[in-house]
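# nightly structure sweep
# worker-07 picked up a monomer target from the shared queue
# config: single-sequence mode, recycle default, output format = structure tokens
# input follows
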Amino acid sequence: MKYAAVVGYRGTSFSGWQRQSSGTGVQEKIEDSLRIISGRETSVTAAGRTDAGVHSRGQVVSFELEKVWRPDKLLLAMNFHLPPDVSVMKIAHAPQSFDARRSALWREYRYLIWHGNALPPLLRGLVWWNKFRWNRAETLKACSLYEGTHDFGAFCKTTERPERSVRTVHRATLRRKGDLTIFTVRGNAFLTNMVRIMVGNLQAVGYGKKDAEWLASLLSGGARAESAMTAPPEGLYFWRVGYGEGTPFRTNGIE
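# output follows
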């Protein structure tokens, strides 16, 4: 029986989503819980990968089990065997053709920045504490340039840049709520470190070190060295995934 699940996690203590030879990936914890429940090794496919320290609110995974479970019972069983910083938020039966990665139409990430001289202790490790405020007009103008189909080669970790680095960004927005700035980006797929470098480049514009024309020039390819810093992982969240008709979670069930 094929299942689809929405998974949330606090990535602080993990080396990323993927199971790894050194360090602990979130995937390992999910697969371990399924092994305990089913008595056999079970692999899961995820909608996307996250780096070490990155969080998730709406990661979607798919997997198969021999036993037919009621989704609510399977959710309880999996969460019982998961650590407190990983939770299965929702489970559904899925058509056999469903694949969490290949069936995805888009992925959405959000990056949270806290501006100001003091950080609320409860937000530590969950936002990027950036003590300086950005020029809002300039960063909004720069942010809008991300939308569309571009070569994001300058927004990718050098050692993991693929031969083809063209990606389509459906939406890129900046919202401010008091001291909190939220960068939302939705696209068909993302390169390694792409969102964090996008945020680092917005900061360069917001500080007045670079301008929007500089950022526009990066969107036709180029080297990673031409971009600004990579923003730290703690502000980044894998927010949600979009699927089409006939799938368990059209927008993963979480808005």
